[in-house]
Amino acid sequence: MRNFYLIFILSLFNMVQAQNDIYVGVSYGTSDIFRKDDASHYNYKNTEFGVFVIKDFAWKSNADKSIKKHWFLQPKLNYGQFTFLVDDHEQDIYRASLGGGIKFEKELRKLALHARFGLNAGYQSGYYQRLEKGVYFAEKLNLGLRFNLNPRMKSFIDIGAMHISNANFYPLNRGLEVFFIELGIQIPNKKTEKF
């Protein structure tokens, strides 16, 4: 666990020092959208809050493309509350993850539309009733808008979905599905393209 947090901090430091676009932000997520009163499959509820940094690495071929492509890295810290509804047991859970993937972006005058497809690996401190504590993996899809705050700074809003599991490395791996929203600020460097 200690080594994972060290890797997390070093990755964050490296991203801040790099020369491509940097995003910082907060997120809110829940699984309640999947839960029904008569559905034993989802006999829990959870909410979670997160802080993150995203580092974009633009593809060299973007200059003449209408849809631009970027690789990205995303270290993230989460705090969540999980409630098992059968006995109304509530638990605080902490997660740290490092994710990455590809982003597609289409610029439209003062706006840019984007989609992110990513994979995450991380560690969670607590037991989710559907997922044991320990190492986990996640597949993630974001859809969002990016827009100008001023000539040198932009903001974004994303909605997305994520599936979390431990890939059957140890028992209790029914997984979680989470819908989330992310809000953040993009701080571009001098070489960032303007739109």
UniProtKB/TrEMBL annotation:
Signal peptide residues are 1-18
- Top-rank taxon of the source lineage equals Bacteria
Biological classification of the source: Bacteria, Pseudomonadati, Bacteroidota, Flavobacteriia, Flavobacteriales
Annotated keywords: Hydrolase, Signal
**Which InterPro entries would you find in this protein's record?**
Lipid-A_deacylase-rel (IPR018550)
What is the protein name given in its UniProt record?
Answer: Acyloxyacyl hydrolase
Query: Which organism encodes this protein?
Result: Profundicola chukchiensis
Task: Give the GO molecular function terms.
Answer: hydrolase activity
Keyword Signal assigned to the entry: answer is yes
